[in-house]
Amino acid sequence: MLWRKLYLLKSPKNAERLKRAISDFEGNKNFRNWI
């Protein structure tokens, strides 16, 4: 599982997508906390 994450991070496009997904996840968490 870990090697797959590292493989995804090697691609800049995938890294950007991953960062966006993480920030979206954080935003959703904060939104739920705010409500």
Which segments are poorly predicted (pLDDT under 50) over 5 or more consecutive residues? none
Mean pLDDT: 75
- The structural class is mainly alpha
Question: How many helices?
Answer: 2
Total DSSP E strands: 0
Note down, in words, how this protein is organized.
The chain has helices spanning 2-10, 12-34. With 35 residues, the chain is mostly helical. It has 2 helices and no strands. 0% of the residues are buried.
SSE layout and pairing:
Layout: H1 2-10, H2 12-34
How would you briefly describe this protein structure?
The protein is mainly α.
Notable characteristics:
35 residues, mainly alpha, 91% helix, elongated
